[in-house]
Amino acid sequence: YSSVELTQHMLQRIEQLDSTYNSFITVTQQQALAQAKAADERRAAGNADFWTGVPIAHKDIFCTNGVLTSCGSKMLSNFVAPYDATVIDRFNHVGAVSLGKLNMDEFAMGSSNENSFYGAVANPWDTDRVPGGSSGGSAAAVAARLVPGATATDTGGSIRQPAAFCGLTGLKPTYGRVSRWGMIAYASSLDQAGTLTRNAEDAALMMNVMAGFDAKDSTCVDQAVPDYRAELNNSLEGLTIGLPKEYFRDDLSADMQQQVRNAIAEYEKLGAKVKEISLPNTHLAIPAYYIIAPAECSANLSRMDGVRFGYRCDDPQDINDLYKRSRGEGFGIEVKRRIMVGAYALSAGFYDAYYKKAQQVRRLIKNDFVEAFKEVDIIMSPTTPTPAFKRGEKTADPVAMYLEDIFTIALNLAGLPGMSIPCGEVDQLPVGLQLIGNYFDESRLLNAAHQYQ
Ligand code: GLN
């Protein structure tokens, strides 16, 4: 098939099916066909990359030149980015075809994709259920086979949890492995771009494009990038898997435990050894995250002021009225909640008690992992406490929603890479196995995922 034929086919699928899933915010039909045509020409001229002509789609958090970049918010519902994020730029460079921009929780805050200004996203496995969040559009689009792979971001689980809920492979790389330039910031010390795909091989192929140093992001690490695909077939003989006892708690359902334990037994058959470990500060991860992430978001979102870009209220009376009403009308409820929590935690009288304390706890959590990786090569756990829940089930209770992140969030605080891969079903819904790696050990994660798949 030519890329134009392939692109036409995918666009047709999106048109026929996405009214059910709502996974796309913008479908860039014309641009996609133009990119496909250029890719076909490039292939004919003999200078094609692996990716040349392959369709892909991007979470609407990545600035895309000339295309609406909404971040799932009314605040940016009129924002056409004037430049490309580095991640977008890299895919353009190799000739990938972008089909459009994917739905997400507003400013990446959420675990169910119910916080989007563009409406909730349906899980293709059961359309009454959530696809997970915040990268719910990326996950639903790949799971529904509307696109073979999608970019996504993960601040506290937003790649791994949707992967688990939609039966996909999700990779959140080490903090600093992929450039955040042009990726709209939620919590800058936690945010990282990654992939949602059907399997580890596709993730490796995406990482070969995305990973690497970028002078435009001062937190992007200047370290050699391996060929991730070349490492997929290494043997797992002798691999030591750590099972943190705090992640296999009694309140995790027997069915969930069973699926994860079965997967680990498969790893033993592949030659791996299993060892129980302890990450004693695990219970502090959610409280620390829900101070640090809102604190950073309150600073990052202060740029959305109705003056420079984005939504502006009608007929402002003066500058204060303009700020107040633009932000009051432009942000959704969850975003406002986080800005308030964050501004409070950072305020003069409370900074030491909340923000500073949370940062200290963060170091303890990181140290737990550093100690654990002296004994084991990889850590495994469930990705989520339950399979996908019903839409509306947790919307009235933000704390119940935050508890969804219990197994994913510590990694972001530590900056470590993590993956979720499908490992069975509970109640006919997919379940995820989480793989946690040491710093810059994405190759090992992808290798381990590929051997299981
Ligand atoms: N669910 C978490 C939150 O709402 C994680 C979101 C994310 O990783 N972007 O903050």
UniProtKB/TrEMBL annotation:
InterPro entries: Amidase, Amidase_CS, Amidase_dom, AS_sf, GatA. It catalyses: L-glutamyl-tRNA(Gln) + L-glutamine + ATP + H2O = L-glutaminyl-tRNA(Gln) + L-glutamate + ADP + phosphate + H(+). Its EC number is 6.3.5.7. GO terms for biological process: translation. The active site is at residues 59, 134, 158. GO terms for cellular component: glutamyl-tRNA(Gln) amidotransferase complex. It is an enzyme of class 6 (ligase). Allows the formation of correctly charged Gln-tRNA(Gln) through the transamidation of misacylated Glu-tRNA(Gln) in organisms which lack glutaminyl-tRNA synthetase. The reaction takes place in the presence of glutamine and ATP through an activated gamma-phospho-Glu-tRNA(Gln). This is Glutamyl-tRNA(Gln) amidotransferase subunit A. It comes from Bacterioplanes sanyensis.
